Amino acid sequence: MGTYGATWEYGGYNGCGNIHPIIDSLNGAYVIVAGNASGVFAEVEKTLKERPDALVFAVNDVGMYLPNVDHWLSLHYNSLLAWRAVRWLENTSHTYTHSIADGIGFDYSWHGLSPLFALSGYFAAQVAHIMGAGRIVLCGCPGDETPRFFEHSKRADNFQYGGGKSQYDKSIQTQLRNEMKRVPVFAEKIRSTSGWTAHYFGSP
Fold first, then answer.
1. In the chain, which end has fewer C-beta atoms inside a 10 angstrom radius, N or C?
2. Which residues contact 129 (CB under 8 A, 6 or more apart)?
3. pTM of this prediction exceeds 0.90
4. How many distinct structural domains can be found in the chain?
């Protein structure tokens, strides 16, 4: 993990984006990270019934469809600009947007975040941790071959979000495991509602 040029450091991470005002700002809040896997809408709905006070951190294109989104995050910053425009057509309530790009119209830039997770769902959990969440529940982030919410079957390229046998899958899961060992206070916050991540982190 490099710190050269970093302007902030917190919770095992550092970077140089404009996130100073939101570091440790959630005061132990309960956060739902809503990913892209099939089942995400039911998992979010069930979790919100149990914890109506939870904040919703939407990941990637699912943020266009969830009725209430507090924070919207993606590593795919060009796509997030388009997804945000679609949401604004139907929903005028303000949602804070986050990405790793610097200076192109997001509320918060996580430019230079180090180490940076390879998947947007894990990046969203990382942001929630740095913002001071007390519990982070992954919904629709199973870390396996579960299809995305808009698909009938798993991806044609066989990418399995860390659960497959490809070198990319293996590196994603290895990174997650290593980070959880390196920053145990982060790992202790996380639970998951489905898939491999529920086995690894435990259920809510």
1. N
2. 11, 13, 136, 183, 186, 189
3. yes
4. 1
